[in-house]
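User: Study the chain.
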Amino acid sequence: MKKLLVDTNIVIDLLSEKKGFYNDAARIFSQADKKEVHLAISSHTFANTNYILTKLKSAKEAREILRKFKVLVEILNLDDKIIELALSDNSFPDFEDGLQYYSAIENDVDIIITRNKKDFTSSKIPVMTAKEYLAAK
């Protein structure tokens, strides 16, 4: 079974039902629900998603959404090694992208799923959009 790291933007697409992106995100998470794929997110994605959802909904609603969402994904820890790798790697100008990438590397992820592939041009593992991943399946 493939292990995918789902970038924050894909999680937001799903949970905020973002027009133009929701359907592909929903299909990937549906595959996880059917145990066809293993989805992982970094712990900072969980925190960032909560922050964004509270801008769209009440804090109580955001937590309820996240409580239900949590059963679909493995939440990867950020540890000292991942943070140090992201801090040391200048090929990721955006620190958060470095955290995503090294969370994937350190947790043996097969593919990173993101809406912004350009953020991962230095990746040594495949990076795909949700649409590309679904088309290749």
